[in-house]
């Protein structure tokens, strides 16, 4: 007698494990991302700081170039003061004059730049007192950290300007043999290392180096 054969199919479970993350896996991923960010953020911040220093150096070069161009044009410097650095009022008048823009003390632009020559034209934001990298409502030119650039001019015409930093700390001797110098206090917004006037290891940016 012929035996009957039966095809018995094994049943497989349709219930399969899901493809989503478990809570533990999510926590591990978040922890890894946080660790990576901890490494990346300081690097990114360092890149930003270097970019701001480059911008500050460019601005300082433009300022000194503008003052020297003014001297070439008029045979004198725009601010007849020996202050080192210029006071905030004189600093503002300097940039009103160099930009050929009305403002500052009486007749600052008309008297000091009668030909209305634009020697420098940085961006401006008069809605803020200290905008980063721009001319503010105070008339001063501010560095990428929001502090006004410092400027000193050889008003005595002896080609010597007092060095604002301590001698032999990285910024030269007691006097700078230039007609105009400019500098930025950097990220900490204080001269030298938090006010000690030493250029070495500071975050300051200077035009004469």
Task: Write the topology of this structure.
Blueprint: H1 23-74, H2 88-99, H3 108-112, E1 150-153, E2 161-162, E3 175-176, E4 180-184, E5 205-206
Summarize the helix and strand pattern as letters: HHHEEEEE
The portion of residues forming beta strands comes to 5-15%
How far apart the termini lie comes to: 110 Å
Structural class: mainly alpha
Main β-sheet: number of strands, strand sense, barrel status? 3 strands, antiparallel
Shape: elongated
> So how many helices?
3
Tally of discrete structural domains: 1
The strand count comes to: 5
Compute the average pLDDT. 88
Instruction: List the strand order in the largest sheet.
Output: 1-4-5
- Cα-based radius of gyration, to the nearest Å: 31 Å
């Amino acid at each position: 007698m012929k035996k009957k054969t039966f095809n018995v199919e094994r049943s497989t479970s349709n219930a399969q494990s899901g493809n989503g993350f478990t809570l533990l896996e999510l926590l591990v991923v978040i922890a890894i991302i946080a660790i990576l960010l901890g490494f990346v953020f300081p690097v990114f911040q360092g890149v930003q700081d270097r970019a701001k220093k480059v911008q500050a150096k460019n601005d300082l070069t433009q300022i000194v170039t503008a003052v020297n161009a003014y001297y070439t044009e008029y045979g004198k410097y725009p601010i007849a003061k020996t202050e080192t650095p210029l006071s905030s009022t004189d600093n503002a008048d300097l940039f009103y004059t160099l930009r050929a823009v009305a403002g500052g003390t009486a007749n600052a632009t008309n008297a000091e730049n009668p030909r209305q020559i634009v020697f420098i034209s940085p961006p401006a934001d008069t809605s803020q007192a200290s905008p980063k990298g721009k001319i503010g409502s105070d008339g001063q030119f501010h560095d990428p950290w929001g502090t006004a650039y410092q400027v000193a001019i050889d008003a005595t015409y002896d080609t010597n300007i007092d060095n604002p930093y301590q001698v032999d700390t990285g910024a030269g001797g007691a006097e700078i043999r230039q007609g105009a110098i400019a500098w930025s206090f950097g990220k900490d917004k204080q001269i030298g290392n938090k006010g000690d006037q030493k250029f070495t290891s500071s975050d300051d940016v200077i035009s004469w180096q």
